[in-house]
Write a sequence for this structure.
């Protein structure tokens, strides 16, 4: 069974192609070039799009625009190829890629998206409790951006170029469950998008 997985919630899009759980290829790139990366993955594996049976999409939270691009691509591919779709939280994929680490995604507005008591939340990095951060490894582009604040609170941050900061699509594929119609996969926004916030 051929599975395509991708995540576009952050500034770096990841994509992966797997067959019966075996990784055939994985790429990183820009969210706007996701379909080009997918094409490269399929070509490299000598596979046709029609062979895709499952699609796994990162559901965020993250950049509203990039997240919507990924979900739209997943729905379009699923519709065209009659494939089943599953959504996986970008935060949960980051956490699974670095066990025991606290995932953090840059949420703009001087905030990070992270997991608090297992739930996605947006918060100022300096408002996270020292008890949560002390001796804890933090991963993700939010951890990189706010390294100084987090390390001052006792957290440990891998080097900026560490693979642990990427929400790997291969991890999404491993976590995926409950495949079904694409329209059932919903994004995790956590907060109102900037455009809606300005209107209100």
């Amino acid at each position: 069974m051929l599975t395509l997985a991708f995540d576009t919630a952050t500034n770096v899009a990841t994509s992966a192609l797997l067959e019966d759980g075996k990784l055939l290829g994985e790429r990183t790139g820009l969210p706007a070039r996701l379909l080009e990366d997918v094409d490269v993955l399929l070509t490299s594996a000598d596979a046709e799009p029609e062979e895709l049976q499952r699609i796994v999409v990162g559901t965020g939270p993250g950049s509203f625009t990039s997240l919507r691009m990924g979900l739209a691509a997943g729905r379009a591919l699923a519709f065209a190829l009659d494939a089943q779709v599953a959504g996986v939280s970008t935060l949960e994929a980051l956490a699974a890629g670095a066990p025991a680490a606290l995932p953090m995604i840059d949420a703009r507005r001087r905030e990070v998206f992270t997991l608090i008591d297992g739930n996605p939340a947006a918060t100022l990095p300096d408002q996270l409790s020292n008890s949560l951060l002390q001796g804890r490894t933090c991963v993700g582009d939010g951890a990189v951006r706010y390294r100084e604040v987090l390390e001052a609170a006792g957290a440990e941050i891998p080097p900026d170029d560490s693979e642990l900061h990427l929400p790997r699509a291969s991890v999404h594929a491993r976590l995926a469950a409950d495949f079904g119609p694409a329209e059932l996969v919903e994004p995790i926004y956590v907060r109102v998008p900037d455009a809606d916030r300005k209107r209100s």
User: Anything to note?
Assistant: The radius of gyration is 17 Å. The first helix runs from residue 34 to 44. Residues 33 and 52 are 19 Å apart (CA to CA). The helical segments are 34-44, 64-81, 90-97, 130-133, 141-145, 147-152, 169-175, 194-199.
